[in-house]
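Re-running the complex after MR caught last week's input typo. The corrected sequence lines follow. Everything else is unchanged.
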Amino acid sequence: MNHLLLLMARHGYFLTFAILLAEALGLPFPASIALVTAGAAMASHLLMFPNLLFGAVLALLLGDSLLFWLGRYSGWALLGFLCRVSMNPETCILRSAESFYKRGKATLIVAKFIPGVNSMAAPLAGSMKMRFSQFLYLDLVGSLLYATTYLLVGYLSRDFLAVTLNSIRAAGRVMEVLIIGALMIYAIYRTVQFLKYRKYGMVPRVEVQDLAARLAAGDADKIQLVDVRSHGYYDIGAERILGSIRIEPNNLDEEAKNLPKGKDIYLYCT
Amino acid sequence: MAHLLREKGFNTFVIVGGLSAWRKAGGHLESVPKNDLIKLPTFA
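Corrected-run output:
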């Protein structure tokens, strides 16, 4: 704990600002832990509350504002990137947007406390055409609440943190064994999945020239072209291969009922 | 998706290079119909 406090004494303001800015930009940095540590440093009279709060709020506003404007002008691209850890990025985006819309703009005030929502809120607000002045006001209130809460937690629990850090050090060996065990279980799971799906073999891949030749030879009535792109690519003015249909990847069971069984199905995306 | 459709009994293929390759080869295109577009809800 003393090493941590020494680090905070020397670089606390900069570290707090940098970590909060990184998290506000969507990077996986532990902003709440940084604030709690800074709060503990406050309790030790190494750092001052007004300076910490100013730096923290500034970092959050800068990061969120950048993501707001990127969300406004990049739309699905940024949201898809932030949802990349999801099994289905498109569903992740649509559900987040609907949840945000239903709960209203005031969601921004508590968004930072909710894992998953914290990095999506700012770009969603931009994509959903919220006024920037309104966003800035709500984000300021949310940032103040977030920073103050965790600084206070750190300030009040400094002694508890010291005990916790010592316990973590002692439990380090146990953690190593647990992590290695978890990685081995995951590797076994992936191997089983690979062996399970290997039996399906490779799906035949067709060059566009060969497809065009087949269509020109009069086989068009034996072929169904299917666009499997996500809705995110369907901006106004978007194009697709002539004669193709779109199927919703997230609703394959229902969509498959409408596909012609007697035809060869050619799938494509971007 | 191709694997899943094969499980359901469809004879599926994948177009190498997708829409980009088709466009580059000069293949015929059409505009996506408006009723296929889905947009996020907006506050404006």
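None of the earlier attempt is carried over here. Residues 2-27 of chain B form one domain. The longest strand of chain B covers residues 11-15.
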